[in-house]
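Table S5 (text form). Sequence records supplied for joint modeling of the two-component complex.
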Amino acid sequence: MAAFLARRLAGALIVLLLVSLMSFALIWLVPGDPASAFLDASATPDQIQRLRTALGLDEPLPLQMAHWYGRILRGDLGESILLQRSVSAALIERLPATLSLAGTALLIATLGGVAAGIVAAVNHDKWADQATMSAALIGLSVPDFWLGLVLILVFAVSLGWLPTGGFVPFGESPLGWLRTIALPALTLGLVQLGFIARISRTAMLEVMRQDYVRTADAKGISKLEIVVRHCLPNAFIPIVTVIGIVAGALLGGAVVIEQVYSIPGVGRLIIGAIAARDFPVMQGGLLFLAVVYLTVNLTVDLIYALVDPRVRLT
Amino acid sequence: MATLEIDALEVRIGAAGLKVLEDVTLRVEPGEVLGIVGESGSGKSMLALAIMELLPGVARYAGGTLRWDGEDMIAAGPDAWRKRRGRDLAMIFQEPMTALNPVHRVGRQVEEVLVRRRGMSRDAARREAQALFQRVEIPRAAAMLDAYPHEMSGGMRQRVMIAMALATHARLLIADEPTTALDVTVQSQILGLLRDLRRDTGMSMLFITHDLGVIAEMADRVAVLYAGRVAETAPVREIFDSARHPYTRALLSAIPKTSGPRERLASIPGSVPALDAFPTGCRFAPRCAMRRDACDARAPRLRDATAGHAVACIEPFGYVSDEDGP
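The corresponding structure-token record, covering 640 residues in total, follows.
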């Protein structure tokens, strides 16, 4: 078990190293340099030079790299040119909104998707199966930005039940939080719900024809018990993998949905930074999202080991 | 009253309704071990699953009756079966490697029967499971309760399956080739164990195998299955001493001899016909050395040759004439 985790952790560190290298290289991929890209055409050479010095772009490359790693290892992601404040502080300030959105969407997608997948598998080839899977396919095919706009039109504009956008932190008002997060989380979660439903159905069908399920049936226990105690824990192994992938997709999808619902999250911060060519925020955001993504994947690996005793051996 | 009475059972599979079992008539008396012998494709595993109502999705009951203590199970439906399974009926399977749930500890899988089907408390079930592990001769029984299936050998897993079957207190144990997947030495240990258990508990057993040697060791009575039909049923001694069906005789002559002069091993020409290619008459006719024109007319039904010895052949050995073989 310890060896298993150590190996996963080592893998994550390698990925982190590559991502940090790419973040660093970002500066050298822009035509000209970040300083002239940030400032518009009317800037004087003197202004550009001053920003270049402030960003440390005058130093030799190896020294810049040493500075970069020295900073990120201390958790310092630099200063935003646009916001005039530290990138870490900006990210941390935006984090609760993004985590609320992606987390709630993941909850909706997982609970709904696994439940729908079980219903479909248990009623294999009957109408309930076909209905669930058709609904899942529709959910999968609808673009999330479109669904977001439709939901805003129906529930916010026409019915007036929920706000059209914005974000209220949970700590400030749990009800306000729920009201602002409900539509965006639903929008983001529904697409992934369809995906998880289809995967769960396949996983359940695969497990249901295994010999050990027949053994459980031979014990005469109820069908519900067979599904819950014997099938589901085994089906979880492929489902957990997919949930990990979905969690990553949700973080990416959150960027679009934050835009649609005007949620002040990490996604919007990064979009804004790209628009303004605010390089330190772009670099920091990339690194930050990579860390979040790796954490999700490590968690998935940990859940694997908890669900499947055979994994702990390897 | 017989524990289990099967009368003219028919099972079909697929949309085409191919018959995997046809006109199968059998009974299992209390405390008796009925051996079912047949080649691959004879329908013996399908018969076991039909008795348990664990037929795969493509298969269905298409005729006949299956009675438990006189209760017509096919008519009574799935809920009646579910009540019997794990209480009156237990089954062990051919593949111990895949028959246990990989994510649950083996002790828990045995305890599940005790708690769910016999209403024991968790603690009592745990003690009982340990006793059962000792009974089926699993070494370090207490520690092994906490093992996962992948930590055990095939023989040990089959012992767990047997412990699970014993936990039910079933009156009929269906053993579908329980030793086929095991090493020869482990095989004889498991057979010995099953024999002891049968002696101690008095449970009936339906023992399915393709191995006549195992039949000789285990069974009181034998039913020979060929292409989904019963060819012959008789007490075990009579099967070996005076088999009447040409198929049974051919099977017996295909057992390698370990004494006497070395001779070429006899084999039955051809193979069991595919489900969609069963002959209209006697299903063994195309491979039968004694075949005559009348054999192709219709499949002969099982009829008594002597008391307790039935055979499905229009002219079995020792029945019409007295040419009772060597």
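Note: The first strand of chain B starts at residue 4 and ends at 13.
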